[in-house]
Amino acid sequence: MKKSTPPSILAIRTVAKSHLFEIQAVDLRFSNGIERTYERFRPFNRDSVMAIAIDGADLLLVREYAMGTEQYELGFVKGAMDVGETPAQSANRELQEEIGVGAHKWTHLRTLKINPQIMGHNMHVLLGEDLYSNQLEGDEPEPLDIVRYPLAHLEELLLDGTFNEARNLAALYTLRDFLKKH
User: Fold this and answer.
1) Which helix (H) or strand (E) holds 179?
2) Where would I find the Nudix hydrolase domain in this sequence (predicted)?
3) DSSP run (H or E) holding 24
């Protein structure tokens, strides 16, 4: 595989900003001399986590409102890592905030890149097992609906129309392959 030389960054400008997002225009010069302007979200300085919790023979999922689709979506617990947290600490905190359980055992399954064409962001997918009850206060505007889903029916979950976010699907395929090996 040929190793390419990354383009030179000529300039970076903010073209739009809200309290959540900043969009940058990045002027580039490629090694062949061609210049282009790309837009991206300002790179995050914090990663995020997705916590897959297994309780006995069930997955613990949440159904929460998603503004992008304007409907309730089924998925795994996820959230931003706080400064100084490891992925396992962050996943454990998110589980406790969103569904009221923590996990004694954590396994890192995979790190996903979230749309690397326009975002420089990592999401660490972790499997939490050996659960215990502990509720922490979270930042959700309403209580989340906790859904128990039988591990024996993972293939059906892949077809569920309310479980269709790409990150969730990638995590579920990763979990399925992990469980086959272990």
Assistant:
1) helix 166-181
2) 44-171
3) strand 22-29
How many Å apart are CA 56 and CA 58, to the nearest integer? Answer: 6
User: Looking at domain 48-180, which CATH architecture does it have?
Assistant: Alpha-Beta Complex (3.90)
**Burial of 166 per CB tally in 10 Å (0-12, 13-18, 19+):** exposed
Provide the 3-class DSSP secondary structure of residue 51. Answer: strand
Per-residue model confidence as pLDDT tens digits over 17-41: 987 778 889 998 998 999 999 988 7
Residues of the chain with CATH 3.90.79.10: 48-180
Q: Which residue has the tokens 């395929």?
A: 173
Per-residue model confidence as pLDDT tens digits over 89-142: 999 999 999 999 999 999 999 999 987 776 778 999 999 999 999 999 988 888
| Burial call 107-133: b when 16+ CB within 10 Å, e when fewer | eebbebebeeeeeebbbbbbbbeebee
Amino acid in the structure at residue 132: Y
- C-alpha to C-alpha distance for 34 and 106, rounded to whole angstroms: 47
Cβ atoms of residues 44 and 24 within 8 Å: no
Place of tokens 């100084």: 84
